[in-house]
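During data preparation, we tokenized the protein backbone, and the record follows.
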Amino acid sequence: MKEMLDYYQLSDKMSEMRDWYDGYMIGESEIYNPWSVIKQVKSYLTDCNAPISHWGNTSGNEIIRTLVDMATYDTKQELELLLRGETLKKRIVEELIYDKVYSDINNLWSFLFLTGYLTAGGIETVDGSRYANLRIPNREIHYIYEDKIKSWFSERILDNGTRANLYQDM
């Protein structure tokens, strides 16, 4: 990252790039989102000085939207914890296949993790199951949560005309 920013004379953008596009873990290594980094460097060079959420403009989020539609009040509370910068310890199903995504609301966490909408601050195995301390990786993804996921919950409330479905599990 430093070499690329130095090459394009954008060294002063290092901290901003880290806040917006860093935070993913592969093993013990923390990495940046390469797609967004390349798009943002191009953006700096052509027309924009402020970082933006490139990810949100490129992916279809319909699976996440469907999982949000399935969410309980507890799930909404957990998403709000993530938005406040906290972590959630959740079981991760790494072999999750598309046919099983909708079979259990708990698959939401695995899917968000496996697709990069969450990252793990540590993974441990307990009784043969893997658990991760999940968090939102960076400001780019935080923006997607704020912009898309929270609005989907709001739409869901408006569609139902009541908060009853969100409170059913209390």
About this structure: The mean pLDDT is 83. The two ends are 46 Å apart (CA to CA). Residues 57-167 form one domain.
